Amino acid sequence: MRLSNEAEVNSPSLVIHLERVMSNMRRMVEIAGGAGRLRPHVKTHKLAPLVTRQIAMGIHKFKGATLAEVEMVAEAGGTDVLLAMQLVGPNVRRFLKLIKKFPRTHFSTVGDDLNAIHELGRAATSEGACVDVLMDLDVGQGRTGIVPGPAAAEFYRALASTRGLQPGGLHAYDGHIHHGDPTERLVACEEAYAPVEKLRAELRSQGLSVPRVVVGGSPTFPFHARRSGVECSPGTTVLWDAGYGKKLRDLPFLSAATLLTRVISRPGENRLCLDLGHKAVASEMAPPRVLFPALEDAVAVAHNEEHLVLETKLADRFPVGSVLHGIPLHICPTVALHSTVQVASEGRVVEEWPVSARARRLSI
Q1: Each residue of 121-162: pLDDT tens digit?
Q2: b/e per residue, 129-160, with b = 16+ CB within 10 A?
Q3: What pTM, to 2 d.p., does this model score?
């Protein structure tokens, strides 16, 4: 992933390799069996230019985790966007303002709490709006949602009868399933999804509308893609990363985002200090947080706000000022640390894009 003009690129920088991104997006469409079955999550890349490229491929449904992300999608021309975060506090009014600002975009959201959806319903009614709300289901992650069963059915009935809202279907994110063995992952995926299908059938038998079921993340994407009547919402598949690349070897995606960094010091024998601190690469997990193809033996011995110290027997090959390219272990929060990305095509940086949706607010 060396770049012919890397001497001109500031460090640390996040570099997006466009050909690899496009390859990943084409593979997403192929695995899904068509662009219409995809609702890709934009929380990984947060980039309007990638949304426009997905739209050009026939993808028109998207998912985001923040109001800024869904606004970015609407501004880029997305016509259907799901906010996968229950609305509380001032975000209720902000969401309704988005609906007014982008009348050509269909906005929906999720919910799992009666008080929250009643508040949303009252606010929507006061604005003359009617909001699609998908019931958020907990299929094992234990983060948000209602466990499929009687309580979930009761919630959905209440949702369907709330003025200002209409039932938009079911949302089931299985982010806890990321087994390295694909057979084990498939078994876990099927066990988690079975109650969702049972609940959908029950709700429909009661005459309730269940217009869509949005399921899965990147690790379970190929399994859900085999089902009929669901929308798949992988996110990391667009850029991929070293974490999934090492663990999910059965998935055919390419690492399309790298970190360009430079050696800024050599603090002792077999040591390199890089300008790649916590503020440039996600640090929510234990090292190694970035993998360097040119330094396969490297061990992180210190990581601070602006510095990463590596121990490697190859240190002598890299004088101060040398450029290194690393693949982040977790790309989603890494992107959020950068205000811009460098866009590489045919082995050289050709553009710079703003990471607009890293912000908590855009216009609303």
Answers
A1: 999 999 999 999 999 999 999 999 999 999 999 999 999 999
A2: bebbbbbbbbbbeeebbbebeeebbebbeebb
A3: 0.97
Q: Residue 1 — very low, low, confident or very high, per pLDDT cuts 50/70/90? A: confident
Closest Cα to residue 55, out of 88, 29, 20?
29
Structure tokens given for 125: 């009614």
Q: List, for residues 205-230, the tens digit of each pLDDT value.
A: 999 999 999 999 999 999 999 999 99
Q: pLDDT, tens digit, for every residue of 257-300? A: 999 999 999 999 999 999 999 999 999 989 999 999 999 999 99
Cα gap 198→137, rounded to integer Å: 13
How many angstroms separate the CA atoms of 341 and 180, rounded? 30
* Euclidean distance between CA atoms 262 and 277, whole angstroms: 12
CATH number for the region 19-237 comes to 3.20.20.10
How far is C-alpha 321 from the geometric centre of its chain's CA atoms? 33
> Beta strand 165-172 with 213-215: parallel, antiparallel or unpaired?
parallel
The domain defined by 6-13+252-357 folds into Lyase, Ornithine Decarboxylase; Chain A, domain 1 (2.40.37)
Sheet of 61-64: strands edge to edge?
61-64, 80-83, 106-111, 131-137, 165-172, 213-215, 231-232
Same fold, 6-13+252-357 and 19-237: no
Give the domain ranges of the chain.
6-13+252-357, 19-237
